[in-house]
Amino acid sequence: MNPVLPGGGGQAGYGLQEGRLRVAINWIMSQMNASHYVAPHQMEPGDVQADQHVLDTMVMNAELDVSLTLTSRLELAISLPFRQTTADAEFLDEDGDSIPGFESIHHRDEVLRGLGDVGLKTRYRLVAPTTERSLFLDLTFGLTLPTGGIEDDPFELGAEGKEHQHVFYGTGTFDPSAAIGIGYHLKAVTLSGNMLWRGALYQNERDYQGPKVLVTRGSAEFSLGENWRARLGAEVYKEWPAKWSGTNARNSGRLDLTPLVGVNWSPLPALNSYLLLKRPFILDVSGGQMEIPFVLGAGLAWSTELWAGQGGH
User: Fold this and answer.
1) How many other C-beta atoms lie within 10 A of the C-beta of residue 47?
2) Residue 52 belongs to what H/E stretch?
3) How far apart, in whole angstroms, are the C-alpha atoms of residue 40 and residue 57?
4) At 96, which CATH number?
5) Does the pTM of the predicted model rise above 0.85?
6) Residue 164 domain-assigned?
7) What is the DSSP letter of 100?
């Protein structure tokens, strides 16, 4: 499992100003509750067996994003992600009671930390707002580098009765992404929508191929005064199963519908911050049960003009 939470939260479609350097810190966390019944191939080496595995997991993703706008239409960016997972594992018997002192090769109480896959992006403003037209249209293409940690096939190790790890922070492959974003500025409201696809196209050296993901998002931002904006929206998150040796990974793949609400505060022209709250509703999940009670995001961005351009939108 590569626990990367979907969605960021800054202002949608911020302007492209030639010569601008932007440095942002984005932080997002969530509680995930998952469970599944134990299949025959998931039995423990010992005599005592659990009927269900129950996992409560706190996932935290923090990213440092640095972007440089080369022209009023072209921007380059790099993101440095850091991940942390805190897992609390419980094992239930056939009556649904917790088994005290149970030790498993599959799950355990632990805290994991590590670097994720570094991301590179280029954004091109295909349609820019003008004095006569308030429409903008952006195309973004990206590539992640295999800098995050990877693991051996946990299902194969589990079938052999060996301890293994399901959580890791890299795919071990160079993974492309593509996105399209559209927006329309009104006097006090900005309407925007975007669609993002990302995914692994081949297996890594340990026969793992990461999932393919499609995120569709729409939102409206409302002015609350000189320095404040509110944001309301929703997103649909579709994840296709990851693969081990060409076979779909168990307990992988899901479909979510997620309302969101957020607020942006810009105390200075060069400084922007946001707070974002999401509540995913799991419509479908493969191989077990999952609940995500909340997703909380926050961020802070600072920008400066490295050289004077001809302006931008």
Assistant:
1) 5
2) strand 52-69
3) 24
4) 2.40.160.40
5) yes
6) yes
7) T
Domain that holds residue 189: 20-305
Tokens of 28: 């997002």
DSSP 243-305: EETTEEPTT--EEEEEEEEEEEEEEETTEEEEEEEE--EEEEESSSEEEEEEEEEEEEEEEEE
Rounded Cα distance, 179 and 174, in Å: 17
Give the pair of three-digit tokens for residue 87.
Answer: 């897992």
Tell me, yes or no, whether 10 lies in a domain: no
User: 54: helix, coil or strand?
Assistant: strand
Residue 39's nearest CA partner among 48, 49, 30, 31 is 49
Does 6 reside within a domain?
no
Split into its structural domains, the chain has a count of 1
Backbone angles phi, psi at 37, to 5 degrees: -75, 155
- Cα gap 107→91, rounded to integer Å: 9
Q: What is the pLDDT along the chain (313 residues), one digit of tens a residue?
A: 554 444 444 444 456 889 999 999 999 999 988 888 888 878 888 888 999 999 999 999 999 999 999 998 999 999 999 999 999 999 998 998 999 988 889 999 999 999 999 999 999 999 988 777 789 999 999 999 999 999 999 988 888 888 989 899 999 999 999 999 999 988 789 999 999 999 999 999 999 999 999 999 999 999 988 899 999 999 999 999 999 999 998 878 999 999 999 999 999 989 999 999 999 999 998 877 889 999 999 999 999 999 987 655 4
